[in-house]
Amino acid sequence: MANINETISEVAKLNPELARQIQKYVKDHSYGLVFERNLPEAIRLYKKEPIAGDIVNILPVRGEEEKDENKVSWVVKSIKDGVASLEHDGETKDVPVEDIVVLISYRDVIYPGLKEIDRVEQGNPDDPYHMVINSENYHALEALTYAYAGKVDCIYIDPPYNSGAKDWKYNNDYVVVDDQYRHSKWLAFMERRLKLAKQLLNPKDSVLLVTIDEREYARLSLLLEQNFPEATIQMVSITINPSGAVRKNLFARSDEYMFIVLIGDAHVNQVKGFGDETEVRWWYLRRLEYASRRGTVKGGVAQFYPIYVDDATLNIVKIGEPITSDVDRYSVPQIDGTTAVFPVKDDGMEMNWGVTGETLQRLIDEQVVQVVKNTRSQNQPYTIKYLSENYKEKIDEGRWAVRGYREDGSKIVVETGGKLTRTTTVWSSKQYDAKTYGTTILKSIVKDDRFSFPKSLYSVYDALKNFVSEKPDALIIDFFAGSGTTLHAVSLLNAVDDGRRRCICVTNNEVSADEQKKFIKDGLRPYDMDWEKYGIANYVTWVRTKCSINGVDVDGNPLDGDYGKPSKGLDLGFKLKKSDGFKANAVFCELTYESAWPIRLDRAFDAIAPILWMQAGCQGPIIKRIGKSYLTTDFYGVLFDYGQASKFCEKVKKTQSITTVFVVTDDQRRYSNMCKRLPGVEVHRLYETFLRTFEICGEGGLD
């Protein structure tokens, strides 16, 4: 609306009455969400080597603030001996390459790659990797649409709230409170990203979660309705600051909002129960903490014994005698038709059961033990759950009640009250306090409070749990990742229910406005190492991810406390020490910008290799080009030389876990032939499909 208002203002100078009539007409005929969609949006690629034809800005002299002249767009005509010849509106200028930066519009065609910076591996080799991507999020989303179009289960984002306090940039400038285009910029910025997000989400069953405060919630509501007309949209209020944030001459603000966009069959995962009652969480019988492994003082010898499970009925038919640490578990007697189950993790570590055999038998007799198949583990083919003996006390107190029996004979035990705040549209539990469970948790890891207002770990945990608790292999994306709370919450959720969910976080590497001012004064530029190391991605997001998985702070010291019961609000069913970390793998990457011709000529495979690996599921090693005619892992393969197609197909069929392959060919018939020879396997053509994807996006295919 800013442009029309400017026009009306000009008309008013000549004809005030006509201006009033125009203003009234605009007001009477504007419906829905009206904003300027064609505002230019461009970003600077400080690490891209400029080439002829690029649009660039000339950087300010080191030590000086940016001026209007530094925002002028120049065309690179040629580059020779480190000097770029530039042109703008007939004016030419020669500038050292080090003093220019490539400028790219959201409409421009880009060909992304990924460069691995670091990784952490605390899970099994075959476990999927989380990813943290350092990038401007629009182009990262384009890369993700190539890999995951229609495959994402959940997107959780916490976008800039547009407070006017220099909390986000548009066209490389902070958006301030008196910017007349402020709301249009924010809406245009969000709409472009939401259109890409929509391409990522599974149209049959997925959810988009967006948090916001009072400044833009009304506009965001309309924007979501316009872009997701087929979805069911709900909003919840979350108390994140019980004491209230000051709003001058207004009520102190205690809450923020979360929009829930339910797509297809997506729904809130209601815990089974009766009416307002919720079924209690059963504990895993196998201990999880490292201190309870076999042979330790905790649990002793008495809590390592075989449990014989009938393979047909899943009933426990016998509890074996405890065995000492010097006895091989495979030496215990076998019973026909049963499996002897021991408390063994996926990685082979022998743990202890949570109770002695005598106590377990009492619980079986009281029908509070369950056995379910565990198809993801060879070491423990059955998962055993139970309710501890104090369940009877809770029933006597009226907090719990028995509401029937399952087919396996176990009791259905429910909470008669409590935990109701998580199923209403008002979330007010103490665990959502952003200061205590956001800022304090982050500071305990990174030892710095540079990142402002991180989300409560438990508010994100509960938000995700409501929609992916029944999807143990869910793919979750956060493209406003900030401090990395979403990935931290996914790791915690996986630890609670042995899930294998993946989280992909995208964040830029910006510094705060105050830091930027200081760094410029010190003669630094954004691509300098002494600037980059303090950016969000490098200094906060990846550090938090790596440290939380390893169970240490940034100095290598074990983290204090556990993820158990913050303010008695969250009950995981067991205590999980923060120092134990998470059984998870993660990789840190930086988005790169490649040229089309090296890709077409098969000279840039290693640059896009991580994107192909990401598309194949983020499992196992990343295939790199090493002169072979074809290469495979246990999960995907790449055929470089079609002359070896028969051998490649034979290898793929033999490795039954391979679900995705890439074929380097410019021949459509060869590609079609590979699809026929590998039924049930996703076959992708390189490099045509890769290049075409980004050409469509860049040519305004989303508008």
Automatic annotation (TrEMBL):
Domain DNA methylase N-4/N-6: 152-494
PROSITE patterns xrefs: N6_MTASE
Keyword terms of this UniProt record: Methyltransferase, Restriction system, Transferase
Coiled-coil portions: none
GO molecular function, one term: N-methyltransferase activity
GO biological process: DNA restriction-modification system; methylation
InterPro entries assigned: DNA_methylase_N4/N6, DNA_methylase_N6_adenine_CS, SAM-dependent_MTases_sf
DNA repair found in the keyword field: no
Superkingdom of this protein's organism: Bacteria
Family (UniProt): Belongs to the N(4)/N(6)-methyltransferase family.
Protein name in the entry: Site-specific DNA-methyltransferase
Species this protein is from: Vallitalea pronyensis
